[in-house]
Amino acid sequence: GLERGAKNQFSTFSNFITTINQKKEGIGNRNSPTQLVIPNIKNVRDLPPICLDVRQKQRISIDTLPQELKAPIPPEPSLPIRTKTVKDFQDDVEKAKSSGDWKAVHDFYSTTFDSFLEINAAFKKDTNSPFNTIEDSGINAKFVNVVYDALLNTPQDVQKSVLKGIINGLLQEWKGPRTKDDLRAYCILLQNPQFSNTSTYVIYAHLLRQIAALTEADHHFLVHWSKKISQKRFKQLVDRLLQFISLRLFPAKPEEFPPMVKCTWWIPSATKVLALFNAANSLISPSIISYTDFYNSTLDHIDLMEEYHNWQCYGNSHRFSFCQYPFIISIAAKKVIIQRDSEQQMISIARQSLVDKVSRRQKPDMNMLFLNVKVRRTHLVSDSLDELARKRADLKKKLKVTFVGEAGLDMGGLTKEWFLLLIRQIFHPDYGMFTYHKDSHCHWFSSFKCDNYSEFRLVGALMGLAVYNSITLDIRFPPCCYKKLLSPPIVPCDHNTLVGICDVTLDDLFQIMPELAHGLSELLSYEGNVEEDFYSTFQVFQEEFGVIKSYNLKPNGDKIPVTNQNRKEYVQLYVDFLLNKSIYKQFAAFYYGFHSVCASYALLLLRPEEVEILVCGSPELDMSALQRSTQYEGYQKTDLTIRYFWDVVLGFSLDLQKKLLHFATGSDRVPVGGMADLNFKISKSETSTNWLPVAHTCFNQLCLPPYKNKKELKQKLIIGISNAEGFGLE
Fold first, then answer.
1. Which SMART domains match (predicted)?
2. Do residues 33 and 219 make contact, with C-beta atoms less than 8 angstroms apart?
3. What is the CATH number of the domain that holds 397?
4. Which of 191, 342, 518, 562 is 20 to 30 A from 626, comparing alpha carbons?
């Protein structure tokens, strides 16, 4: 029992059960929702699942309460006086390591973790201060970290004493609201590294249940305190919770845990606590960790559609579904949900068309099962607009494209070519619908007024069809566009409700017009007299077809000077005008076009960044993964030309690798499923080696002549990918 080291393998809790049973006799059979019963493996009481409804609150992260909210504060009990410092503790640990006498360290751990009061006495920065604000938890984080870092290297009896103390603390009877000292204790206990070991999961689960069952006001404090945790520790906490959920879903040794039917509250409790950390992460810009660090890839292997249907059917009832907490579902899993939901809608619409045809005693036609788009290359935009407008009822069917006068059958290639050609034409600067900003390398909506915004609806429908039919588009919209596209994520029933309007900031403008945003930022930080030096009013001037027009940012804005006192309001109104009001009709048409195809509750699961990835793919390239999944026609992967090719490509800079991908597939981004989903193929071209490589972007195919050496291949490949634009060389 005195073995040292970080094995962290604890024996069974039989030696704890006696203590627990004694406490249970005093507690009786009362069913307090926060009461802890460390069970025999055969007897675990159910707690009603903790869940929230996404449709009710749109985005589940744990809604943070207003900062001015004050929860009832129960009186804080007086804390014991503990004077041990970080240095004192470190000295005790060093003495124990050299002498082998761990008594002082054992006494510290067993006393400190014996109760919530003792935890606060040891780790509270000042025992005489209440620390009742969200801004400061009052926790001595450095001391907590040092104590936990040393814990796993202590003898087993020391580690067991900590667990025993935690059990004692959790078993106490609670009456009324928690004190801030209780919340501090929960915050500290969550960081215990012992909970990474499955043998402690019974205790960990009950800790999570008590935290999950706290009031919303208490969660508010925990969220704000959690955002002060260091990035490293924060990531460890999130990973520990994700591991707990994964191992409860798919235990390596099922006998280690109580039967699933006896602890149905484990996963809902852990997920709700994880939601607190997700909320804390979203409060800070930039966030502490990436939103993708909350993904649990284990969920990719469960029945996602059952989760989705439970969420749709039971709404805000007490039936738990991971879809209530979409931050935990990976983009790959969300894509599966959206695709299957799309397929079911396609089948339903097609079946209804078939039934209608038969009921009218008409002969069924297989074409009625598809969205058939017939266009002329010479009238691509107008024909596409007419087809989608005429066949609005068929938008949720499988897409098939035919080019008039051409015999090609659409096996996917014609559909992709249609998207490529249409996007290139619509986004061309001469077309006037979108403005390309060179500084940010993205497109934005033209604010020019027109009589008909149907072409913007077409672009929205194209994006929707791309998501619906799993096509990756080469579109460069800023992140703000996707935030607007989900505002709201479900089309409102009242057509008078504004759509595509979201809160925008100067950061959003930086992503589109960095030079203008920089100028406004300079205005905000200007130390002189803004009114006298800038001589500006609450107006915006824009050039439209050679004519300068002015727009008031607020009533009588042309008579209101911009001053040091109102410049923040001026900048906010300016940004809102550029990104919301000046393009409202254009974006509303775009919004309705997208949702005419993609209307689904599945959109509630998505973040704006995830919508962008579904539409445009991911910017992260892995050329080694592409090499592993590439198919060959006329070549073997061991052929000298192919070996030259991959030696050259893997040595390319990221910029050249992106150019190669764009040259071969029409986009420099990767589908959600990774490089394997590209179905990239290299075919042998029987032309002269003097020729450059040729690409068939509709089929993600590269035609490569059998170049004689690596130098020639590299030279020709770089020329080809660096000078090709569209479907010909300039």
1. HECTc
2. no
3. 3.90.1750.10
4. 342
- Active-site residues, by number, are 698
Q: How many CB atoms lie within 10 A of CB 525?
A: 7
- Interatomic CA distance for residues 11 and 200, integer angstroms: 10
d(CA 336, CA 401): 24
Whether residues 133 and 262 share a domain: the answer is: yes
Query: How far apart (Å, rounded) are the C-alpha atoms in residues 669 and 672?
Result: 10
Q: Do you know the residue count of the chain?
A: 730
As given in the structure block, the two tokens for residue 677 are 């989903």
Dist CA 129 CA 131 (whole Å): 6
pLDDT tens across 142-180, in order?
A: 999 999 999 999 999 999 999 999 998 888 756 557 889
Q: Rounded to 5 degrees, what angle do the CA atoms 641, 642, 647 make?
A: 100
Number of domains observed in the structure of the chain:
3
Give the integer Cα–Cα distance in Å for 178 and 72. 9
In tens, the pLDDT along 696-730 reads 887 889 999 999 899 999 999 999 998 865 444 33
**Cα 641 to chain center, whole Å?**
41
Provide φ and ψ at 718, rounded to 5°.
-65, -40
Could you identify the residue written with the tokens 């042998």? Answer: 684
The owner of tokens 């900590």 is: 162
State whether 263 and 383 are in the same domain: no
Tokens of 623: 């050329």
pTM: 0.81
